[in-house]
Amino acid sequence: MDIYLVEAIINGILLGGVLALLALGLNLIFGVVDVVWIAYAEMVMVGMYVIYWLHAYYGWPLPLACLVAVIGVGLLGILVHLLIIQPILGSAPINQLLATGGLLFFLQSFATLLFGTDFRNIGLRMPIIEIGDIFISFSRLIAFCVALAGAVILYFFLSRTHIGTAIRAISQDREIMGLMGVDERKVYVITSAVGGSLAGLAACLLVLQYDVHPFIGLSFGPITFMICVLGGLGNMIGGFVAAFLMSQIISVGGYYFSIELSYVFAFLFFIVLMFIRPQGILAK
Amino acid sequence: MHPTKRGFMKVAAGGLLAASVAALPFAVMAQDKPIRIGVLYDLSGPLAAAGSVPGSIGTQIAIDLVNEKGGILGKHKIEVVAADAQSKADVAINEAERLINQEKVDILLGVFSSAHAVPIAAKIDAQKRVFWITIAIASAVVKDKNLQYTFRAQVHSDQFGDASTQFIQENAKTKLGMDPKDVKVAIIYEDGPYGTGVAASNETGAKARGLNIVLKEGYSANSPDLSSLVTKLKRARPDVILHTGYNPDITLFLRQSRESGLRFKALIGHGAGYGQIDKLVEAFGKDVDHFFNVDPVAAQLLDPKTLAPGLGDLTKVMVERYKAKTGAQEVPPHTSMGFNNTWILLDKVLPLAIQKHGGWDAEAIRKAALEIDIPVGGTIQGYGVKFHPPGHQMAGQNERSSPVVMQYIGGKTFIAWPAAIKTIDPILPLPASSPYALR
To answer: Is B436 domain-assigned?
Structure first.
């Protein structure tokens, strides 16, 4: 057995966890509110800055800083919904896309203005896990576990709570729910808060392994969006599966060929599947 | 004071000297007409922090110094029209066009990214306008292009890759106890023109010196994951890693390398992200100790005694002003590049163009640039200036530019190569204290 191949596969699984977590929130918002938050990765960036400043600058303990980031980006999610999404809910999808696209540039530029273009990191040195000849990234392992836990918690939230049921109901038929006495607007606000919090949670995990800078969204935004589309926009299990598929293509493809080629394969895979299953890999 | 008006009246009142009338308006106007320079750098986006902003500050300091003394030759002030390329090639091209055609600048100066410099040079040169490159290093910007109005005093990427491989060859026996042919090198690079250019020269240099290339691979600087590259490096077991990248990819690579247990004897970076030691130390602390970097030298690291008189003081002024402007402790090499390569234009080329060729139109600047002949030791970065003439494979490139190999130890920078100006006996292989050292 090629020990390095095993390492590449493990790395792929761990990367999949990070991507799956990113896709989770974006998918939730789309599934319920029917709007794509193109600026999702930029909201993650906001969370990373919150943690950086609280922890590295003001010396708050990391878990507390992370908690503030989760709550803070959750609140930002509500703001985004009330200020940007709600007024244009009835307009054409392209307008909604452009509006959240505008938010993307706003957040990027605002971060540049506030923090400059410097790369910042919390200077955390994670322990190294070494099993035989295989090394596992501790920060990635945490991210993976949290992504799994996040998915499970979200599942129970959606299936076992009253509001979760309402959220799912709205995602299935938004017209009829209003007639049945469900306050749509409240459900949207809660969904946006949960989606935002998930972005905050992703920020907590990314900040462990990546430098914060105003353009970090460039690294994650496009692939997150692609994963959501691949899984079927709004289909959370599909997104989860797609994240691991893509990460394996990138990781193992990168190992056998090159990182550049692995992305070619990933995009090719994406295009082909869009032809075969335009509704996503798990579409019924 | 209205010299223009007065000059005009003189001509009108005289009502003669018909022959000189054609030349006169220009000469008279030139009295107080500022020289407009379009300064284009990435002030936002990922490239800004990778060295573009320090470079732009260096350029600004050079212009300030000249303007404080009344301008070029004491009378022609420099008027800056600054623009932000936003780390995007399309924006860079549009801004360059705007500066040249709408702002009507006399000279376009700057550009951090080679990916921006390549298309801009082609466009601006075709319009017979002067493009004065300060930082972008890819050889491809000028190579085989026969550009007529584009000049670059800066080092070019073929020299980067050559310097690091020559450094390895010279130190293989004495430091690594290996024949150069047994030294395994891996070449990894971001896949834009900059990384690709350096990597190509790494390959050429390594082959010419008989080094054993075990891996050569590029990746996108925005890549969210480099672990498969790290895994491949572990399999290939290189002694020396030759790396060219920007900031986010370098920190990601070093972090993932550490977590994956990648080990090597030396790592040589090639400018950009590796040029910013304070950023690397902030992220990695002592982990980056003993890493090497190939770059045009940060002027303050040179011994002023090896330079022409007065240059040491000029460097001091640059360093003081940079620190005052930014509050930074370390002055990155990009500041020297932005400053020095602007200074060469302002202090040598423009005066010659005005005095000998009658002004600062593109033709005059071009002629002056081609006549400039500064010996080695004649600029604050140590190198001389003599531009390759039209028709040469590298037309417009300074043939006397040269990078150095530096070594970072304890957050300080030492010069390890070339031997003539080195300030430290290079330390390699990596000492056991490094998390990347072989065990």
So the answer is: no
Q: Which of B48, B227, B261 sits opposite A11 (nearest CB)?
A: B227
- Could you tell me the two tokens for A182? 């469900």
For residue B393, being part of any structural domain is answered with no
Is B186 found in the same domain as B238?
A: yes
Question: Is the predicted pLDDT of residue B3 greater than 80, yes or no?
Answer: no
Which residue of chain B comes nearest to A124, CA vs CA?
Answer: B283
Per-residue pLDDT at A235 = 83
pLDDT tens readout for residues B80-123: 999 999 999 999 999 999 999 999 999 999 999 999 999 999 99
Tens digits of per-residue pLDDT, A92-123?
888 888 998 999 999 999 998 888 777 888 87
Residues B190 and B79 in one domain: no
Cβ distance A255 to B217 less than 8 Å, yes or no, reads no
Which CATH number fits the domain that encloses residue B68? 3.40.50.2300
Complex prediction ipTM:
0.89
Q: Is residue B362 part of a domain?
A: yes
> Whole domain around residue B201: which residue ranges?
158-295+404-421
| Chain B partners within 8 Å of A11 (Cβ) | 225, 227-228, 231
- Let me know if residue A129 belongs to a domain: no
Residues B288 and B171 in one domain: yes
Is A209 an 8 Å CB contact of chain B? yes
Q: Do A215 and B46 touch (CB under 8 A)?
A: yes
**Cβ contact, residue pair A11, B44, below 8 Å:** no
Q: What is the pLDDT of residue A140?
A: 87
B135 and B280 both lie in a single domain: no
For residue range A51-70, what is the model confidence (pLDDT) as tens digits? 999 998 899 999 999 999 99
Q: Which of A18, A123, A128 sits opposite B261 (nearest CB)?
A: A128
By the CB < 8 Å criterion, does A11 face chain B? yes
Cβ contacts of B237 on chain A, cutoff 8 Å? none
Residue-level pLDDT, tens digit, chain A, 284 residues: 688 999 999 999 999 988 998 998 898 888 888 888 899 999 999 999 999 999 988 999 999 999 999 999 999 999 999 999 889 888 888 888 899 899 999 999 999 888 877 788 887 778 888 888 788 888 889 988 998 898 889 889 888 998 888 888 887 777 777 777 778 888 899 999 999 999 999 999 999 888 899 989 988 998 999 999 998 887 888 888 999 999 999 999 999 998 899 999 999 999 999 899 888 887 76
Range of the domain at A269: 3-115+138-276
Residue of B nearest to A4 (CA): B231
Same domain, B22 and B62: no
A116 in reach of chain B (CB within 8 A): yes
Whether residues B119 and B166 fall in one domain: no
